[in-house]
Amino acid sequence: MSRFAAVQGRLVRMALVAVLSYAPLPASAQEFVSISPEAADFLGSRIQEIRQRELDTERAPGQDTIRVSEIEMESFVLFWMEEDIPPRVDSIDVRVTDGIISAETELTFDAENRTGNVIVDTLFEGTHTFFAEGALIGEDGRGRFELREVRLDGLAIPLVVVEVLVDRFVKSRYPDVDLDASFTIPWGIDEIRLMQGVAEIGY
Fold first, then answer.
1. Contact criterion met (CB below 8 Å) for 72 and 38
2. Burial code of 169-185, b = ≥16 C-beta within 10 A, e = fewer?
C-alpha cells in the first residue's frame, strides 16, 4: 500500500494513540456509557501514570493488562485533541473488532484549512463524512498499522487527493510519518489485542 494518512487516517491514528500511548480504563474500573468530558478526562488522567510506570525501576516483573473502550477513544478525540486536528471534528464513531479498528467522523473544513490546491479545496470545503479502517498488530513491543480504506462522503478518496492532504495536514507536523512502516510501541507496551468493542493492552 502506498504511504498515506489523510485527515481521516490521522484521526484513526489519534484514536490509536489513545490506545497505544494513553493509559486506558482498567478492566475493573467504571464503564462509560456515552461520549463525555468525564470519559476523556479519565483517560487523560492516566497519561502520566503509565509513563511513570515505564520508568519505575522497582516495578515487579511480569505483564499487566488494561483496556480502553470505543467510547473512551471517541471522547478523547473530541475533548482532548482539538488542537491536534486542523478541521473541526463534529462527531466521531470508533469501532473495534478482532484485529480491526475503524472510525467515521464528520469534519468541517474552513478557510484556515485550505491546502492551496483549488480542486482539493473545492472538494473538501464545508462539512463532510470521513471513514477509515485499518488492521493493527502489536506484539513484542512492535506495532504495525495497515490502512485499508478511506472514504469521503461514501466514496473512495483518490490517492492524489490523499497525498495532498498528507502534505498539508500531516507531514508538516510529522515529517517521518509512514503507515507502511512498523513502529516501536511507546512507553513499555508489549502487545495490543483488538477485540469486539475494546482494545486490550499488555505492558
1. no
2. bbbeeeeebebeeeeeb
